[in-house]
Design a protein that fits this description.
mainly alpha, 10 helices, about 80% helix, globular
Length: about 200
């Protein structure tokens, strides 16, 4: 079956997730820059989660430029990914409202890890649906970023639990920074093969 409905649905869900997150932002109570500082935690947690949603949207878009076949397993794997991403507004708001308390930061890390695992399962479902000669399998290659992200999430979660929530947030931000660097190999593969898919 074609991928267009899956892509349109996913794009809509991600747009709603971002909208919900921005609606959770509280404006400053006063007109000064000092008042703006009082809501800086909320803005920074929103920014981090927005970047993560953007990263998933970008990678999802590139992935489905190369996918030729979608089956039930791919549809369910995609829904699993969207479920974990749809929890970002909740875990982001919880971190903000508690001033980056330990438990909400741990839960946020678990949410990040679960979304990453769901994305990996989606990749597996696509590779199985397309078979051993699938274009996406070739484009994915070694997937170094995908392999180093889960350990970094786990280190962040452990840091939040036993060391410092600030250190945990650094690890979460480092993973986002790694993914912000464009994957030129995937983009060039899409440019070469998207028209043939």
């Amino acid at each position: 079956m074609p991928t267009s409905r899956l892509e349109a649905f996913s794009d809509g869900v991600l747009a709603i997730i971002i909208t919900i997150m921005v609606l959770e932002l509280r404006p400053p109570e006063g007109p000064t820059l000092e008042d703006l500082g009082d809501v800086s935690t909320g803005f920074l947690t929103y920014l981090l989660s927005f970047v993560y949603i953007g990263i998933y949207w970008n990678n999802h878009h590139h992935m489905f430029q190369l996918v030729t076949r979608v089956n039930g397993a791919v549809l369910w794997a995609n829904l699993d990914l969207l479920f974990w991403l749809s929890l970002y507004p909740f875990t982001t708001a919880w971190m903000d409202e508690t001033g980056l308390a330990r438990t909400p930061v741990i839960v946020y890390g678990i949410n990040l890890f679960a979304a990453g695992a769901a994305y990996y399962l989606l990749q597996i479902a696509i590779k199985r649906a397309e078979g051993p000669d699938g274009v996406f399998r070739q484009a994915l290659g070694r997937d170094l970023k995908g392999k180093i992200s889960p350990p970094l999430y786990l280190v962040g979660i452990l840091a939040a639990a036993w060391v410092s929530v600030s250190l945990a947030m650094v690890f979460y931000a480092v993973v986002a920074a790694i993914w912000l660097v464009p994957d030129r190999r995937m983009e060039s593969f899409v440019a070469r093969h998207a028209s043939t898919v």
